[in-house]
């Protein structure tokens, strides 16, 4: 019986050796590359606005109009569709320190949609009771983009800029313009 058992073990071992080894050594091919991903289309643009120049007298307020490119909108207040929604306009840059001294609070603008050959616009009016403002970045404007739309800084413009000093005196030597745009 011992002989039979030893013979069976030898046959089984030989069978495993012959049939158990596939001889392929495993798959050494390179996996197929993943399909390219399409970059996400931007759905929003954040426009940064700034003043520049040398002010003739300290300024306490300003008004300006931002012309928006085609297919760019801003959220409006449901109760007042001519007023931008909260968060559309935010103080930034040199104006960040003035959040409690700037009016209106909360900060908002007047929106007008495109029509009659004119672009959509946001009119911004900022004033303070006692504070005077430095020159530099002052606000961001959060915009929505229609599907498939991309914009650049040169697509936005600022018109009708006026700065005011104490008692409503006109400040000369200043301009306002788009400083940057970030697509999101």
Highlighted features:
mainly beta, 39% strand, 10% helix, 184 residues
What secondary-structure arrangement, pairings included, does this model have?
Elements: H1 2-20, E1 44-53, E2 61-67, E3 72-73, E4 76-77, E5 80-84, E6 89-91, E7 102-103, E8 109-112, E9 121-128, E10 137-145, E11 157-164, E12 170-171, E13 174-183
Antiparallel strand pairs: 1-10, 1-13, 2-9, 2-11, 3-10, 4-5, 6-10, 7-9, 8-9, 11-12
Number of domains: 1
Count of helical regions: 1
The CATH C-level class name: Mainly Beta
- CATH architecture, by name, is Sandwich
Q: Indicate the CATH topology.
A: Immunoglobulin-like
- In angstroms, what separates the terminal alpha carbons? 82 Å
Order of helices and strands: HEEEEEEEEEEEEE
- Quick one: how many beta strands? 13
- C-alpha-based Rg, rounded: 33 Å
Question: Can you summarize the main beta sheet?
Answer: 6 strands, antiparallel
Mean pLDDT: 86
Structural class: mainly beta
Q: How much of the polypeptide forms β-strand, as a percent range?
A: 35-45%
Low-confidence stretches: none
Helix content: 10-25%
What general outline do the C-alpha atoms trace? elongated
């Amino acid at each position: 019986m011992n002989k039979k058992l030893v013979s069976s073990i030898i046959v089984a071992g030989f069978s495993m050796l012959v049939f158990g080894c596939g001889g392929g050594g495993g798959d050494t091919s390179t996996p197929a590359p993943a399909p390219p991903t399409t970059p996400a289309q931007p759905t929003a643009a954040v426009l940064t606005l700034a003043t520049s120049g040398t002010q003739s007298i300290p300024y306490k307020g300003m008004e300006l109009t931002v012309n928006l490119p085609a297919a760019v909108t801003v959220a409006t207040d449901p109760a007042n569709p001519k007023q931008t929604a909260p968060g559309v306009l935010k103080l930034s840059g040199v104006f960040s320190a003035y959040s409690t001294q700037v009016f209106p609070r909360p900060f908002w603008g007047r929106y007008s949609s495109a029509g009659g050959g004119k672009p959509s616009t946001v009119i911004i009016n900022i004033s303070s009771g006692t504070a005077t403002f430095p020159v530099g970045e002052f606000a961001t404007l959060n915009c929505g983009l229609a599907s498939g739309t991309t914009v650049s800084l040169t697509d936005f413009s600022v018109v009708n800029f006026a700065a005011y000093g104490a008692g409503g005196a006109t400040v000369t030597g200043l301009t306002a313009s788009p400083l940057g745009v970030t697509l999101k």
